[in-house]
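#structure-requests
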Amino acid sequence: MSLLQTENVVKQYKDHLALDKVSMAVPKQSIYGLLGPNGAGKTTLLRIINQITAPDSGTVTLDGQKISRADLASIGYLPEERGLYKKMKVGEQALYLTRLKGLSKHEAMSRLKTWFTKLEIIDWWDKKVEELSKGMQQKIQFVTTVLHEPKLLIFDEPFSGFDPINTKILKEEILYLREKGATIIFSTHNMESVEEMCDHITLIDRSKSILEGSVDKIKEEWAANEYDVVFKGQAVIKTISHYEILKTTKDNGKTQVRLKTSEKAEVNTIIRDMTDKGQVLSFNPALPSMNEIFIRVVEANKNN
């Protein structure tokens, strides 16, 4: 079942069509990637979901009901453009932002202390925001976004400005939140993060949704009839009838061959052809990366 759905959402700004009939369905307790080049319309869609702006037409539903202002209490939104009061103390500001989400002072303080300790920022509680690095400030905003345990979390470029260690920490926390029941949308240009974390994606380009579905199925659909075959020993594989040898590597008594078929062939046929050349240790489709798919889909869309 879907927690959030958009249907034929349209948004026009003067002479610019920001969104052109964009539809997507975000399954419950999933991590959903919203992808696209700069200016594609991603942030506009996120702002509509958060009711910062309204669509010109189309609908947005949450749990099967048209989304309303009352639903904002069930949403946590971390925009790409961060904003904290520089002169306020960290703990004071975090407590203020958390109380706005409807938590009592006691409950807010208890949860803040837990999260600050977990993310190793408890020592900054009495420091002014302006004394913190960009990464530290982003950690605080992440905490205030998730603290009220909303059922829908929306992150716009959540790993921007983080070093690899803190990026890893944040990824682990996002996965933990999904395990606890949250549904998560995040917009990112980092395709490695999409590979690691996303169950489903929508790719928006030039205001339109041009690719949508589960990450695994999309990768299978965009596979280019390429396969990785590992042979035992130092096999000499230069040519195989009906196949193009793209790459051969040898290591630790094994030979790995990347090959391509001229057309879609039965897997059993390919395996039989390979066993004629040597002892096959493994055989797997060579699936494209999400980065490769992103580039190919966007470039193809430019030519349409």
